[in-house]
Automatic annotation (TrEMBL):
Keyword set includes Lipid biosynthesis: no
Residues annotated as transmembrane: none
Name the UniProt record assigns to this protein: Zinc carboxypeptidase A 1
Signal peptide, first to last residue: 1-15
Amino acid sequence: MKLLVLLTLSVLVTAKVSYRNYKLYKIIPKDEQALQFLKNLEDSSTELLRYQFWNEVTEVGNEVSLMVAPDTQNLIEAALNESNVAQSVIMNDVQEVIDQENPKWRSGEANPVDWTVYNTLEEINNWLEQMVQEFPNQLEILRPGKTGQGRDIVGVKLDFSPNVRKKTIFVESNIHAREWITSATTTYILDQFFRITDVEQRNIIEAYTWYFFPVMNPDGFVYSHETNRMWRKTRTRYNIFCYGADPNRNWGYQWMNGGASQNPCSDIYAGPEPFSEPSVRVMKEFIETIAEDMVAYLDFHSFSQMLLLPFGHTIDHLNNYDEMKEIGRIAMDELEEVYGTDYVVGNVAETIYIAAGSSMDWVKGEFNTSIAVTYELRDKGSYGFLLPADQILPTAEETLVSVFSILREYRIRHPEDGDESTTSNVNLI
Ligand SMILES: [Zn+2]
């Protein structure tokens, strides 16, 4: 009997999770009763994965994506109908969308980082190493520490004139494991910094020291590639069934002050205490070493097409909110000009939901960094986390345009915030 339990558990641990015939529903709560029904459903979601919300239940009128296992669909549909909650099916078979998302998903071969496929952690880290070899005078590899499972957290420092002290910009992505479009976008941005020849853009690139950490949650990211495509959290074991804390609810600023859970099985489990997750602790300590000169903190998530500003715990407009909202709006209008992708701009609590304990809030709260923004990249829910790989390039291109807009607009308003750079003579790609 014991052996059987062990065998079953080991199958649970190693087999790739299938989402065959899982449906994705689009639900718009039309009144308070419907909203309450969804909130109750959200609160009782469990490790057994019979259903999973892809975005949080927020307000009446705000669309929610809910994925439901085949054997639970009748139950959920009946309950929704009983509570007068209208629903429509946007995916009939989530696994089919997973299988089509990445053209080389099953090839088993190493893929180049060329923004036509979603790359693995190993591919991304190897690419970072290659870039450093190619540009040893501008790039430096960073390994500030290890994850809970002993993986290196790998990033790069980029500086086109390393002998001149500059303001710094920190770029992070994939703190949420399943949001693959985010590391695809930030690696593209890094690559473009060695290709762009436009003078205005080069001035912006070369005015700063940049830190890129494409995969902030390596353990979760590997798990999302190898075992469970829909994984969001870290991989710390918290009980027999439930693993991981939400690394973007684990930072020690207003920790657990709304929009986070103390249930280890929840997708928004904040962890037993602030900075409980080794990967979060490592990055906290690293950011502390560069925070003094930091002028911008750019955090990339998906999905929803939003540019979010601090804070997540309150709807109050704090610090330079009004100015950043204005700059954000200009930048998102310029983003929209590229491919017509429209973004909402606003603070986290007001725009989506109360969500305390994020890395952005910690940076803003701790260091009052002027520019602290979180992107929620494409799309608005048609594919959600499973954005097809042929959308990587357009997403990355439009996003890069907006990053330049944000910095340009900020520099116009704050010329005092430094441009000590001198033109470099690096040979671009
Ligand atoms: Zn996220």
